[in-house]
Amino acid sequence: MESAGDRTATPPVLPRLAHLARNLARQRYRGCDRHCRFFGAYVRLAGWQARALKDHPADGTPKYFSASGMKKNDLLYGLTKAIKTKGPVVVVEGVTDVWRLHTNGVASFGKTISPTQTKLILRHFHGRPVVILLDADAADAAIKVYEKVAGARLAAGDDSPVIIAMLPGGRKDPGEYTREEAWNVVTKVVKGAG
Known about the structure:
Elements lengths: L12 H16 L3 H4 E5 L7 E5 L11 E3 L12 H4 L6 E4 L2 H7 L3 E3 L7 H10 L5 E3 L6 H17 L6 E3 L14 H15 L1
Parallel strand pairs: 4-5, 4-6, 6-7
Antiparallel strand pairs: 1-2, 2-3
Helix pairs in contact: 5-6
């Protein structure tokens, strides 16, 4: 039988794993089946994360929670798809932000970026512009992510741009934009850096 860590897991295994993740979450957080959406990381299931449908659920359910043992600092959600693309790669906070950007986005699972995530960006996106597009309330965090990625790129001899993009229009995160609006922001900052 195939396990969650088996790199050769076939697609029919993934629905069973998602079902298992939902059941585990329901045991840990009552009412999660009514308030959460689930998504996995990578093609092979490295873990799962759920998000409450409401930003501040009344029953005390946390906004986000992840599979026990999931090492979010070692993952970039969307990496396997972003590797296959060309052009800028956009670093965002959350999985739903990647969904909005489509295949050129990766999520760091938060406002910070770990050394392992930085190495993944260096390894897979050499020569490509990297755009940091965090939520509107994360301007200070975006500067720190920029410093880590730009510093690592410079040390590795990659002079491709690392750019911070700010969200216009008073919206709080990239997931609130249409795909076209989000890419207009990205295209504008990449052209401005060139």
